[in-house]
């Protein structure tokens, strides 16, 4: 698997965890769940004006994104972390609105990749099956 | 017969009557049952007594939780984790208490309120805690033995190479000596032959005298030194072969006892990911969600290394590091800090507090591998 685009590098996670498809899929799926949950936390903290906590959420999201190779989204969270550190409520809210389409696009992309891995695994011919062929 | 009769127990609660009643109940089974019901004295009493088992007898889980958390924050002895805890709980709190015990926040629980169903259950819970306490001490010894086994296994190839080199050098020395002797003997025979033909009798006698009195003894002396060296190097090789088989078995055992790393991170994704990478790199990874949980885990089963995030709720990585470094024998365990910001001043504070090294997140496999190997090697060198 080698998918490269400015916003996403599938080799990043593979370089960290190894090339076992099951593990790659597991971490993509886990990332999607954790990312949604942490993004909700970020929105909640930002809405309440908790800038330090919002900055911490953005930092966690940034690290998680860079870990799985979601570089574009990672940079977007990095900008939000920086805005939160300036205690700029209006810009923080605006940037959270701006990031939504990118978040959805990235999570959908990762969902497709995880699904693709699952399909490849399901259709893969095992050595035993190969031997059993007439 | 109760083999843990000499266990030291501390019963804490909110009411004097309650804890003293428990003291009377436990006294026939255990020699040392102490009680404390003054909230402001709990940490002081715990530090003075250093109990094996702490019994928390509070009417609600919230009260017990608050008291235990307060103890953990105030008492260095509690943080050292050389104790086990039994919670007496209300039947309505059972599910929540079970979850806390599963996460190893408490070690065991006994249904106590609104009434005691099984009077022996508390004694059994304490005995079980004592068994686990002894086992964790044994495991600590096992970890040290396995670390030594790994050291021996790693040293063997060098030792074998040195032995082989000694053997080769001794062989070459002996060969060179034999060559030298043969060359000199040939030369002397040549001189003697020429002396027979050309020189007077006196020259021939002089050559024989030099050969018999000076060259011969020198060769004998050198031979006496070199020949045993070659024999000893041969014997060393035979002995090394036997050791090699023994160390081979030890290596296999050591490999099965992989270095243990405690991963401390409140982010479940990072915790899971790093644990997976560590397992892939040949480490046994255990995980804790914050500094307090890490301190508890450290005492249950001391790891070879702690890999800890800086920013965490309840207790930060820096605070946990300070407490680890202030608590022998935990202070000897190397701690590597992780942070999402390499310029974070906390990292400087961490290094000043005794962190062995630090990693910037997102981590990379190569850096993680290199830093852990270096920290563990430095630790082995210190111990060795």
Descriptive key words:
A: 134 residues, mainly alpha, Four Helix Bundle (Hemerythrin (Met), subunit A), B: alpha/beta, Rossmann fold, 5-stranded parallel β-sheet, elongated
The name of the CATH architecture of chain A is: Up-down Bundle
Order of helical and strand elements of chain B = EHEHEHHEHEHHEHEHEHEHEH
Helix count, DSSP H or I runs of 4 or more residues of chain B: 12
Number of strands of chain A: 2
| Mean pLDDT over the residues of chain A | 88
How many distinct helices of chain A?
6
CATH superfamily of the largest domain in chain B: Response regulator
CA gyration radius of chain A, whole angstroms: 18 Å
CATH class term of the largest domain in chain B:
Alpha Beta
Task: Characterize the main sheet of chain A.
Answer: 2 strands, antiparallel
User: Which value, in Å, is the CA radius of gyration of chain B?
Assistant: 34 Å
Characterise the protein shown here.
The complex is a heterodimer of chains A (134) and B (384). Chain A has 134 residues and is mostly helical. Chain A has one domain (21-124): Four Helix Bundle (Hemerythrin (Met), subunit A) (Up-down Bundle), CATH 1.20.120. Helices cover 81% and strands 3% of the residues of chain A. Chain A has six helices and two strands, in the order E-E-H-H-H-H-H-H. Chain A has helices spanning 10-17, 21-47, 51-68, 71-85, 89-123, 127-132, and strands spanning 4-5, 8-9. A two-stranded antiparallel ribbon of chain A has the order 1-2. Chain A is elongated, with a radius of gyration of 18 Å. Chain B has 384 residues and is of the alpha/beta class. Chain B has three domains: 8-119, Rossmann fold (3-Layer(aba) Sandwich); 151-256; 260-383, Response regulator (Rossmann fold, 3-Layer(aba) Sandwich), CATH 3.40.50. In chain B, the strands form two sheets. In chain B, strands 2-1-3-4-5 form a five-stranded parallel β-sheet, with helices on both faces. In chain B, strands 7-6-8-9-10 form a five-stranded parallel β-sheet, with helices on both faces. In chain B, helix 6 (121-198) packs antiparallel against helix 7, helix 9 (291-300) runs parallel beside helix 10 (317-325) and helix 10 (317-325) runs parallel beside helix 11. The radius of gyration of chain B is 34 Å and the shape is elongated. The relative contact order of chain B is 0.07. The mean pLDDT of chain B is 83. The A-B interface holds A 15-18, 23, 27, 30-31, 34, 56, 59-60, 62-64, 66-67 and B 267-270, 272-273, 276-277, 280, 311, 340-341, 361-365.
């Amino acid at each position: 698997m080698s998918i490269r685009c400015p916003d996403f590098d599938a080799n990043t996670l593979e370089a960290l965890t190894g090339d076992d498809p099951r593990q790659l899929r597991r971490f993509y799926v886990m990332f999607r769940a954790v990312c949604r949950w942490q993004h909700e936390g970020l929105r909640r903290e930002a809405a309440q004006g908790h800038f330090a906590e919002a900055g911490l959420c953005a930092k966690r999201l940034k690290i998680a994104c860079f870990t799985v190779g979601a570089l574009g989204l990672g940079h977007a969270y990095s900008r939000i972390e920086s805005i939160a550190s300036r205690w700029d409520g209006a810009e923080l809210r605006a940037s959270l609105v701006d990031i939504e389409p990118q978040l959805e696009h990235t999570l959908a992309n990762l969902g497709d990749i995880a699904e693709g891995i699952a399909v490849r695994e399901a259709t893969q011919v095992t050595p035993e099956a190969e031997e059993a062929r007439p | 017969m109760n083999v843990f009769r000499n266990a030291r127990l501390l019963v804490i609660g909110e009411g004097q009557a309650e804890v003293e009643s428990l003291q009377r109940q436990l006294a026939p089974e255990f020699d040392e049952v102490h009680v404390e019901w003054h909230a402001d004295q709990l940490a002081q009493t715990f530090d003075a007594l250093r109990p094996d088992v702490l019994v928390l007898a509070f009417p609600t889980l919230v009260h017990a939780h608050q008291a235990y958390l307060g103890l953990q924050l105030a008492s260095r002895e509690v943080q050292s984790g050389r104790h086990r805890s039994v919670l007496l709980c209300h039947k309505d709190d059972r599910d929540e208490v079970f979850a806390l015990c599963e996460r190893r926040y408490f070690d065991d629980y006994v249904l106590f309120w609104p009434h005691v169903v099984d009077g022996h259950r508390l004694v059994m819970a304490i005995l079980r805690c004592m068994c686990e306490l002894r086992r964790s001490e044994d495991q600590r010894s096992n970890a040290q033995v396995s670390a030594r086994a790994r050291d021996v296994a790693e040293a063997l190839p060098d030792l074998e190479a040195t032995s082989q080199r000694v053997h080769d050098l001794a062989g070459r020395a002996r060969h060179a000596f034999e060559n030298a002797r043969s060359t000199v003997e040939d030369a002397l025979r040549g001189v003697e032959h020429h002396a027979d033909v050309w020189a007077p009798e006196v020259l021939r006698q002089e050559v024989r005298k030099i050969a018999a009195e000076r060259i011969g003894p020198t060769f004998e002396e050198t031979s006496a030194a070199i020949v045993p060296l070659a024999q000893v190097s041969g014997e060393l090789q035979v002995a090394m072969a036997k050791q090699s088989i023994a160390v081979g078995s030890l290596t296999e055992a050591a490999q099965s006892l992989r270095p243990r790393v405690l991963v401390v991170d409140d982010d479940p994704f990072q915790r899971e990911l790093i644990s997976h990478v560590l397992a892939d790199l040949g480490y046994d990874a255990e995980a804790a969600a914050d500094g307090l949980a890490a301190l508890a885990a450290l005492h249950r089963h001391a790891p070879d290394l702690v890999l800890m995030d800086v920013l965490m709720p309840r207790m930060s990585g820096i605070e946990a590091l300070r407490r680890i470094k202030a608590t022998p024998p935990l202070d000897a365990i190397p701690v590597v800090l992780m942070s999402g910001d390499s310029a974070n001043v906390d990292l400087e504070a961490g290094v000043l507090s005794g962190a062995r090294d630090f990693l910037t997140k997102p981590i990379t496999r190569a850096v993680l591998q290199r830093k852990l190997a270096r920290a563990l090697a430095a630790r082995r060198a210190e111990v060795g």
